[in-house]
Specification:
The protein is of the alpha/beta class. The chain has twelve helices and 13 strands. Helix 1 packs antiparallel against helix 8, helix 2 crosses helix 8 and helix 9 packs parallel to helix 12.
Length: 385
């Protein structure tokens, strides 16, 4: 049975061949570390790492490539930024659609004297923008927000929220897990002080690589969460105060960075507009194809019905078949891989009215085809009717 992968919201697959080739080349022909070895191979590899920082700073409008910090994933990035920045007595706002990569650190920090409030969202997942300013308190220091929902793909208005942050002197921290590599982001224009990203989703790198980019003014406000050897100023036991070493102790995931480098090159050649057009074209085809099932009461589409203001992520609930059973049948009988459940975003489900049942999520990527979308529509019709 042919397998159809429709879970790109979890991780993109397949990766471009260039990504796999780059990782294989590193593992078989390079294999060295950087910042330690005083030999040409290590220097050449450092050049690739530096170029990857440059590409990320360019893609996201970062102020300086030295302020690009590599971590193992966006969860680590958000933990470093939130736990390093927020102090007891601080108040922060977030959206009602946040992933647990934001919410669990905030709940953990709440027990240490940090407070937070959720900006309300509509049943479509859209932010109630008019509520933001009235929720700002004298002790509010920042807003943290996902750019796009991992559950229904709804895109938050970063530019407008960033302008509110600028107006009120708040820091703006953004989770770009579901948007980086698909939707343009400009830190300067959107007044973003900390942009967290993951490499293995739409940036097309391997798992185990992520990072964050800081505005210059944000750097001294974040206490490093991790410390250790950096290969620099080894005569002292103090943490370096310069970037990126301030936040990059220990051995880096160099195979991951090399793979991410290849993924970023592929995206640049393809173009964000072309990538978004392809994914949203598939999304429209899928939404149009399952609309008759919703009209017949066989399933419910969660979130926006059109392609404006969204990514290629669609969640549904089957009404006459348990969602978990339907997802199992999609895989077992039709070879269609989706994600079912609460998707690490319980409050998002409460906003959408799908808690605690959860949803089946279809997420389309660069290498999906119209034929695969049609196969998913056909499978749903057979399961639901």
């Amino acid at each position: 049975m042919e397998r159809i992968y429709l879970d790109n919201g979890a991780t993109s697959f397949p990766k471009p061949k260039e990504v796999a080739d780059a990782v294989y080349e590193y593992m078989t022909s390079v294999g060295t570390n950087i910042n330690r070895g005083g030999y040409q191979v290590a220097y050449d590899l450092e050049g690739t790492v530096f170029e990857t920082r440059e590409m990320l700073a360019e893609m996201f409008g970062g102020s300086d490539c030295k302020n690009v910090v590599f971590t193992k994933n966006i969860t680590e990035s958000l933990n470093v930024v939130l736990k390093g920045f927020l102090k007891p007595g601080d108040h922060i706002l977030c959206s009602s659609m946040e992933h647990n990569a934001v919410m669990r650190p905030l709940v953990q920090l709440e027990k240490k004297g940090v407070s937070f409030d959720r900006i309300p969202g509509k049943p479509t997942g859209e932010l109630e923008l008019d509520k933001v300013e009235e929720m700002i308190r004298p002790d509010t220091v920042a807003i943290v927000m996902t750019h796009a929902s991992n559950l229904v793909g709804t895109v938050n208005p970063l530019r407008e929220v960033g302008e509110i942050c600028r107006k009120h002197g708040l820091k703006f921290i953004v989770d770009s897990a579901q948007s980086a590599g698909v939707i343009p982001i400009d830190m300067k224009e959107m007044h973003i002080e900390a942009l967290c990203f993951t490499g293995h989703k739409s940036l097309l790198g391997p798992q185990g690589i992520g990072g964050f980019i800081l505005d210059e003014d944000m750097i001294p406000l974040i206490d490093p969460l991790l410390s250790g050897g950096t290969g620099s100023i080894s005569h002292t036991e103090e943490i370096p105060d310069f970037m990126p070493d301030r936040f990059e102790p220990g051995t880096m995931n160099l195979p991951g960075i090399v793979g991410l480098h290849a993924g970023l090159k592929w995206i640049k050649e393809k173009g964000l507009d072309a990538i978004a057009a392809h994914e949203l074209g598939l999304t429209k085809r899928f939404l149009d194809g399952i609309a008759p099932l919703e009209a017949a009461g066989k399933l419910k589409i969660i979130g926006l019905r059109g392609t404006e203001g969204r990514t290629g992520v669609v969640s549904i609930q089957t009404t006459e078949v348990d969602c978990a059973d339907a997802a199992f049948r999609l895989d077992f009988e039709y070879g269609i891989m989706t994600r079912v459940g609460l998707h690490c975003a319980p409050n998002a489900h409460k906003t959408l009215g799908t808690f605690p049942t959860g949803t089946i999520r279809f997420s389309f990527g660069n290498f999906n085809t119209e034929e695969e979308v049609d196969a998913a529509i056909k499978a749903l019709k057979e399961i639901c009717i």
